[in-house]
Write a structure and sequence with these properties.
Blueprint lengths: L3 E8 L9 H9 L9 H25 L8 H19 L4 E8 L6 H11 L3 E6 L9 H11 L5 E3 L6 H17 L6 E8 L3 H5 L4 H13 L7 E7 L12 H10 L3 E6 L7 H17 L4 E4 L7 H16 L4 E2 L17 H15 L1
Parallel strand pairs: 1-2, 1-3, 3-4, 4-9, 5-6, 5-7, 7-8
Length: 357
């Protein structure tokens, strides 16, 4: 008899209606991976920020329809269903079931961990829908999972350099280019969620992974395009990594360029793709004279992206280690101490040093 394999998809989560917006934001900003402050201060900040941001956030969620909530869960459910179908075909001797564990709203990780346990899974694969690893996303989700599920698991760290993942991005970009009428004088803005500089300086590999992906995509689109990696969604007084997406939109618009803007860290449509990229930056581009502005859709259930998730899951099931590194054996730079494989890299460096003596 085959195995019972649970594949748990990690994602951010989003409010399911107007009344959920403030508690969702409170959960988000109460995460120590997001607000790195002692508990009493973080607790107070989370309540203050969620209360002050809730009114504008509600307006943005209302722009997307869906009863004033986020489309992220329905979008993730489509991805989970597509993945389960493909895994069932790839692993015909096993019973595969996908689960969705959201970090800051329903279905909460603690509840999903209980469901996986009750189902009696023989193998559990933790699969983030965050392509790049960050301590603020995958790292936070892993810590939350470990609080509620004591059993063994296999973890996919990240997959920003997988061939099918890169090809899916390029396919979406070129489809948007065709939709825009194949204009000349193109600026392709590859936008990712930003991080405070201090998180990257502490060893988070996210920025390096994003910028390496930008270089890989740049090599596959028309070479006369300007390609820029940039970062969106800045909040708070801290200095964040750059360049910022809004300033790049403003700059390229003033140069009368045709803008294509694509999310490279978001794989599902939600407020930061549909509203921030799709509405707010479009208005900014129009105000500053852009020749045109076209938003590239998130990957969603693109066949290439689903193939990436299938491949990562199967590879995780076949490996001896409990964590699958990005792009198989590729590791982040040795300075990226926040990477789950930092210990592996350090041990490899120590082994080389011993051999050299």
């Amino acid at each position: 008899m085959g195995r019972k394999i649970a594949v748990v998809l990690f994602n951010l989560g989003g409010p399911d209606g107007p009344d959920s917006v403030q508690p969702f934001l409170r959960n988000l900003f109460d995460d120590p991976a997001i607000i790195q402050a002692p508990l009493p201060i973080r607790w107070a900040l989370a309540r203050f920020i969620s209360k002050t941001r809730a009114p504008s956030a509600k307006k943005n969620y209302a722009m997307m329809g869906a009863g004033g909530g986020s489309p992220l869960l329905p979008e993730t459910e489509k991805q989970a269903e597509a993945l389960q179908i493909e895994l069932a075909a790839s692993l015909p001797g096993d019973e595969v079931r996908t689960f969705i564990a959201m970090r800051y709203w329903h279905p909460f990780t603690r509840d999903v961990a209980r469901q996986v346990k009750d189902w009696g899974a023989d193998e559990v694969v933790l699969l983030p829908l965050y392509p790049q690893f960050s301590t603020t996303t995958t790292g936070s989700s892993l810590k939350e999972w470990k609080k509620h599920y004591p059993g063994p698991t296999r973890t996919v760290c990240c997959y920003p350099f997988e061939e099918s993942f890169i090809a899916a991005h390029v396919d979406q970009i070129m489809a948007a280019f065709d939709q825009a009428g194949r204009p000349e004088n193109v600026s392709l803005l590859l936008s990712a969620h930003g991080l405070p500089e201090k998180i990257v300086e502490a060893g988070d590999p996210y920025q390096w992974q994003c910028e390496t992906l930008v270089a890989m995509i740049s090599a596959r689109v028309p070479q006369d395009w300007e390609v820029v990696g940039c970062y969106q969604s800045r909040v708070g007084p801290l200095k964040w990594i750059g360049p910022s997406t809004d300033l790049e939109v403003e700059r390229t618009s003033k140069e009368k360029r045709n803008i294509l803007i694509a999310p490279i860290a978001f794989v599902s449509e939600h407020i930061e793709t549909l509203v921030e990229l799709g509405e707010e930056y479009k208005l900014l581009a129009e105000q500053h004279g852009a020749a045109s502005y076209t938003r590239v859709e998130a990957l969603g259930t693109h066949p290439g992206f689903i193939r990436t998730l299938v491949g990562e899951t199967i590879a995780a099931l076949e490996m001896n280690d409990t964590i699958r590194s990005c792009a198989g054996s590729r590791l982040c730079p040795t300075g990226a101490s926040g990477c789950p494989h930092a210990d592996v890299a350090r041990r490899a460096g120590q082994a080389v040093a011993v051999q050299a003596e």
